[in-house]
Amino acid sequence: MTLQTILLAVGPGDADRTDKLAETVLEVAKPADATVVLAHVFTEDEYNEVLGNLEMDADSDQVRPDEVASRHSTIRDLRSELDEEGIEYDVRGAIGDHGPTIVELATGVAADRVVVGGRRRSPTGKAVFGSTAQEVLLSSPCPVTFVRSAE
């Protein structure tokens, strides 16, 4: 199977693992000459908080989730890494529950692979995936690569 589109979905907990996420996506995208869709999924509360932090007017017709995502620091860091390597990418922003919204995005962009981050949920390692990662792993229309934080 040839990879054409890779969805890299990030959220509020991924700022500390952008290097590892970028490294993982580059390992897959570069040899396949695939396009990466950088997606930041916000809950309604997260979105409103980011709008405030970016001093954007929530009532403005020009404010769209894609624009908010493109200005978010995590996406900016990832864009910089992809630019350095000459990888084509598109930026998407979406508002909703993280897991189902990532699955909707993957379906909507016809992703061949989804990359998500996460962390170990218990010190004993019993619960490896969080609820978002688990939702994506179980419901994604394509294979999922899970990038665990170094914690």
Q: Identify low-pLDDT runs.
A: 123-127
What's the helix-strand series? EHEHHHEHEHE
Distance between the termini: 33 Å
Q: Please report the number of helical segments.
A: 6
Strand order of the largest sheet: 3-2-1-4-5
Share of helical residues: 40-55%
Overall average residue pLDDT: 87
Evaluate the radius of gyration.
15 Å
Shape: globular
The helix-and-strand class reads: alpha/beta
Biggest β-sheet description: 5 strands, parallel
User: Count of DSSP E strands?
Assistant: 5
- Estimate what percentage of residues fall within beta strands: 15-25%
InterPro entries: Rossmann-like_a/b/a_fold, Universal_stress_UspA, UspA
Organism: Natronococcus pandeyae
Protein name: Universal stress protein
Family: Belongs to the universal stress protein A family.
In short:
Belongs to the universal stress protein A family. This protein has 151 residues and is an alpha/beta fold.
What would the keywords be for this entry?
globular; 5 strands; five-stranded parallel sheet; 43% helix; alpha/beta; 151 residues; 6 helices
Structural notes for this entry:
Residues 123-127 have low confidence and may be disordered. 43% of the residues lie in helices and 21% in strands. The protein is globular and about 40 Å long. The protein is of the alpha/beta class and 151 residues long. The protein has six helices and five strands, in the order E-H-E-H-H-H-E-H-E-H-E. Helix 1 (18-32) links the parallel strand 1 and strand 2. The protein has a five-stranded parallel β-sheet with strand order 3-2-1-4-5, sandwiched between helices.
